[in-house]
Amino acid sequence: MGIMARQPAHRISLDDNFYGGIGFKHCIPFEMRGGGWDDNKPFQPHRTHSNSIRLPARGPHHSTMEAVLKEMRAHPAAWPFQKPVNTDEVKDYLDVVKKPMDLSMMDFKLENNSYALIEDFIEDAKLMLDNCKLYNPESTVYHKTAIRMEKALQDILKSVGVDYRL
């Protein structure tokens, strides 16, 4: 007899055909020997919202980098830099560009606290633009767009109080 959709879950899992597992015994973690619990210290679970994920502390310039990245993404010249270059279409890209970078990768690195210093963030932005200028001849729209984006980045940095020459 098959399991009916309206059958309660507890009846399904108590069915004779249910695999019982590998004989796991119920235990209380802090009562396990060698579990790393300190008997002299009372157990106090860290209380967080049930859906929250604890991320490492943000650096002092995180909000500045976030603002710069938001401005960069919104700039009209940012269209070629939003996502990684499709290496299935541009077969020789990785032969020329050794360290690819794009705005989505910068966003990922920022959200994962990979930028210890704002200079590291700016170096990735420069890398992204330099890669574009390296791969694309000066006459192409991509190269010209990278130059426009470079000027825009300089203005964005200045607007948030970061004095950095590209």
TrEMBL record:
Sample GO molecular function, one term: histone H3 acetyltransferase activity
Cellular component, GO, one term: histone acetyltransferase complex
Coiled coil: none
Pfam family, one: Bromodomain
Domain Bromo: 73-143
GO BP, sorted A to Z: positive regulation of transcription by RNA polymerase II
UniProt keywords, alphabetically: Acyltransferase, Bromodomain, Transferase
CDD domains given in the database record: Bromo_gcn5_like
Name under which the protein is recorded: Acetyltransferase (GNAT) domain
Organismal lineage: Eukaryota, Fungi, Dikarya, Basidiomycota, Agaricomycotina
